[in-house]
Amino acid sequence: MSDWEKNVRRVVPYVPGEQPAESNIIKLNTNENPYPPAPAVAEVIKNFDISLLRKYPAPDADVLIAGLSEYYGMPKDQIFVGVGSDDVLAMSFLTFFNSKKPILMADVTYSFYDVWAELFEIPYRRVLLNDDFHYNLSDYKTQNGGIVIANPNAPTALCEPQEFFDELLAANTESVVIIDEAYGDFYGKSTRELIAKYDNLLVVGTFSKSRSLAGSRIGFAFGSPKLISYLNDVKFSFNSYTMDALTLQIGAAALTAESGAYYRSTVEKIIATREDAKKRLAELGFVGTDSQTNFLFVSHKSIPAKTIFEKLKENKIFVRYFDKPRIDDYLRITIGTDEEMERMYRVLEEIGCSRS
User: Model pTM?
Assistant: First the structure.
C-alpha cells in the first residue's frame, strides 16, 4: 500500500438501482414516477433564459423555499432545501449526529443511511424490524445519538401510525429524530404536524417520487427554526450554491396550485395501479407487504426472487433485487403505467409464476 493510501477515507458506497442506457425496456427498479412532470415544469424549461447560467444561482434558494412555504403552509425559516433528499439527509447526518452514542436505524431500510454513518464516522446501530417488517417502538426508547426512520419505509413499503411517532419523539427529546418521508405522498399522511410539538424533529421530503422530478434532484426538509438554522450553517460551510438556476425555477413551478392538482391526479393513478397489482401478483403466487408507496415488496411462494429478477431482466423488465439478509427472497417492484404492468404480468406467467 502506498503511503498516501493510508490516509484515504474508505467507505463502501451506496449502490443505486441500475440505470440501463438501452431503449425499449420497462424500468421498474428505482421507484421513479411513470408519468411526466406537470405542464408548468415543461413551460419553465421551454422558456428558460439561458443567460442566467452565466451567473451563480441564488444561494438562499428563495423562489423554491417560497413555493414550499405557500404549498405546505410552513414558515420559510422552517424549510431547508438541497440537491435531492439524499443531499438533505447527508447534510442532516453531518449536522446533527455528532454524539459518541450510536444513532439508531432499522436493519431493513434505505441503505444509504449506514453509508453516511460510515462516511462521517458516526457510530450507529441497526435495530431489527419485527417479523412483519414493522418497527418495535420499545427498541427506540434507549440512549442514542439520534434516530432516522423512513416512513413509509423502503424497501418494505410499510408505515407506522402517527401515535408511534408521537410516543417515539416524547421518549427521545435529547437527540434529533429524522423522519424520511420520500414516499409520503402515496401514504397521504405526514409527521410534519408534530414539528410544532417537538423542536428536535426533522421531516425530509423529495420531488423525485410523486412530482416526477428525479432527474432534477430537489429535496427539502421541515423543522424548527433552530434545526434549520444549524443545517444552513453546515450547508453554507460546504457549498453555498447547491441548486442550479433552472432547477430552482422547475421546483417552484412544481408547487403551483395547478401543478399540485396534476400531481394528486398522477398519485391517484399510481395508487389505483398499485392496488390492482397487489391482486394480480397474488394470483401469480406472490405474497408481500401492504404497500403504501409507489412500489411493491413481494416474494414468490415457489420461485426464488433472484431467478425471477434475472428472467425479467432477460425480457427487458428491470426490477430491484437485494442480496441481503432477511430480504434476499424479495423483489421491489416500482409501479409503472398500466401497460407496463400488464407486460410484466404476461412475462411472469411465461416464466412459470402461478398460485400453485
Answer: 0.96
Are 291 and 330 in contact, with CB atoms under 8 Å apart?
Answer: no
Retrieve residue 93's grid coordinates.
447526518
Point out the residues of the chain with pLDDT beneath 70.
Answer: 356
Each residue's pLDDT tens digit, 46-87: 999 999 999 999 999 999 999 999 999 999 999 999 999 999
Contacts of 125 (CB under 8 A, 6+ apart): 102, 103, 104, 105, 144
Handedness of CA 337, 210, 28, 275 (dihedral sign): negative
Helix (H) or strand (E) holding 116: helix 113-119
Cβ contacts of 127 within 8 Å, gap of 6 or more: 104, 105, 106, 107, 135, 136, 139, 140
Which H or E run includes 84? helix 84-96
> Residue 325 and residue 323: Cα distance in Å, rounded?
7
What separation in angstroms does the CA of 65 have from each of 74, 75, 161, 248, 255? 10, 9, 28, 9, 10
